[in-house]
Amino acid sequence: MSSTELRIEKLNSRQLKLLEKCREEWRLNGLGKGQTDRVKAEAAIKAAYRAVGLAEPRVIVWLKSPWAGNSASRILESDIDWPYHLNTAQLEVWDAVWKQCPRQLEAISGEAHWKEVRRSLRLSAEKKVIEREGVLLEKYLKDQFAENMGIYIWHYLRSLAGANVSKKLREEAENQVKSAIEGRLSALAAEQIYHELVQPVHLQVWSYVAEPLKQRIPTMSGILAGPQKWQINYGLHDSSWLSYYDFVDRLGIEGTTPLKGLTDLARNAGWVWAYENLCIMTDRPLEVHRDNRFRIHAEDKMCMRFGDDWGLYAWHGVLVPPYVILLPEPLTFDLIESEPNAEVRRVLIERFGLENYLREGKVVKMHQDNAGILYRMNLESDEPIIVVRVKNSTPEPDGSIKEYFLRVPPTMQRAKQAVAWTFGLTEEEYDPLVET
């Protein structure tokens, strides 16, 4: 560190205000939605390759969701050579990838060679159609040629792609930056940035949005089923760790340039699967809906939807099957009881209404005193539901008294104890005469 480079011991008020602005920008970026700027995103990923000494990817393909990107990556790393092994959604990914590649592969192999490839594939298609149909029909020829071209291009991409370099793009660039900024921040200043900037962005962007995506994406069926590798650059969902270095740059500390490509990528794209010579890029979501605690949530549609109409359904952060959100007919007690997943069943109970669920279920009265009545309902493969039934201390305008069912922890044994818990008090501390 030269004598002109100052060391920051503790963030001052001006720097803390700058941190707040940076935090809000990266939070909004990570929760972003809308159209993707593919031109800027491609420039960003090329810069990220160059930053770690790699040549720019020779082929770039775009898909509309991280599920599609993951499917393409798994097809690429498999030995599938026939598209009919795939299910309908996977076949759409197969087609979407190869149809983007002819011009890019022509640029790599040369015009003359590519013309010869097309001629050979067409002759093969003509032969297959005649063998199958007895006559050369243009419609069948077109379909057979497209099938041959798709198979050829996927074989070519496998031989071209090379190793996955997603991890390299991050680790080597980050190590360069760490070395360049070493000594410019005290441990206290670095801790301030981590707790005031990185942690909040990580919670809202990664924990509440990206992590649910990671849970749902690997649910591959058929030939693509199997262990999941997470060799990915997460684009906009890398906002938390990138925010640290962006803020360091805003403090006037030099040396963060190697991460500029990944930073620009996060501002302009979704998830990316990077290989030595091939890059699979995906768009940002078109819609993201959250509750007031920033958890993904929507009551009547996908909480996160991408351009290919793949997405997530969630209820206050809990991933649920589509039927839980889209079910057209009213929920029933039997439907709830038939749901095998305990977490999903809790969501269904919440939607059905706890009071309705208890009225239709097998409820056991555990205890009764002046505070209310404590009930227990046993559930298969889940903890029991314990509720306390209480009366409102203030009559309604018509003189009636409203009753409420309040869910309490399974450890509650007495009604007064349960009511006290709802006020954050012990049974001994609770006095109904001062209840507000």
TrEMBL record:
Database matches in InterPro entries: DUF6745
Residue ranges occupied by any DUF6745 domain in the UniProt entry: 234-436
Protein name, per record: DUF6745 domain-containing protein
